[in-house]
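Sharing a chain and its predicted structure for anyone who wants a worked example. Both blocks are below, sequence first, tokens second.
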Amino acid sequence: MENVLTKEQLLEFIRKNNIQSVSDIYESLKDLFKDVLQSFLEAEIEETLGYEKYDVKNKQTTNSRNGYTQKTVKTKFGEMEIDIPRDREGEFEPKIIPKYKRDISEIEDKIIALYSRGMTTRDIHEQIKDIYGIEVSAEMVSKITEKIIPEIREWQNRPLEKIYPFIFMDAIHYKIKDEGKIVNKAAYVVLGINIEGYKDVLGIWIGESESSKFWLGVLNDLKTRGVEEVLLFCVDGLTGLKEAIEAVFPKSDIQRCIIHQLRNSFKYVSYKHIKEFSKDFKRVYQATNEEEAFENFCQIKEKWGKQYPYAFRSWESNWEMLTSFFKFPPEIRRIIYTTNIIEGVHRQFRKVTKSKSVFPNDIALEKMLYLATKNVVRKWTQRYRNWDMILNQLLIMYPERLREYIK
């Protein structure tokens, strides 16, 4: 029995009901969800009795329909009245709304949970059908997940802590439909480690393909939301990002990601030499101090420089930002010399978005990344190992900037 509402039917429903406001939309969704439940109840009693309504000639049972009992149930759309079909012999036991059950909101929770794990709306439609036997259209799935948009806005604008010793910034790219065209956009992700040593995703911004101008807006947003002090930013090698950070947080140190830098160098190196080239460069970023690192860099350049001159230019022009981590002790170096911490978040994003080659709009991408972020952050229950020692070292290095924030 097919009960899926098409897009055209939804549009007709909107026109017919004169929907003109958000509250009208909410009420219409409530009615649509009620229709879905009612359709399933009719399908259930049909299966129990073995014949369709009014199809008496195919009836092979002494049992028959016996009107309806009205029941008030609780859903995420609020309370609604459902007409529960009855049969004369009392054999009908609804599965979707059991006799004594009055809260059925878990169906919507299930839809949002499946969406957060990267399932397409059509896959969710099949999953809900298999689990509950309900026909939920792809459009209905989208509408249900749109209920989390206010939650996303609240999360994105929430006040932040006054100080983060370390903030990591990176972007991940997606294809999104925009005014009828498919364009490349970036999801700008900011992750912070607070004064207690706990990680958190501070925000996700969807914008034009990665640019220093957009990052400047992100940094100003962090400041507006309450961030006063950042000891060190860990970033990739985007041109102009250093200037953007200095404009908003002029006292902060900047560490460019060593792994990003190596990948950039590899573009100029023959595949047959990458393994050896990479092994040689470990002597740079694993050196004891900056002086040793520079000496090793010069030796590596002497070995490879004539063959691959472009592989070294970015190291030379950005040496100061690439070697900021050498001023810190080993415990802190392991945290900041690479943006691997944020790459781990990106891996989770890729898992849940791999089924989407193109997103219909920014909101669709926001919903999926926000739900994935909630799943990631929920697991971050432990603070960094040896954080007490790390904090003491930071207090020695930045006494004036840290003391007022230590409770």
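Comments welcome. Residues 1-5 have pLDDT under 50 and may be disordered.
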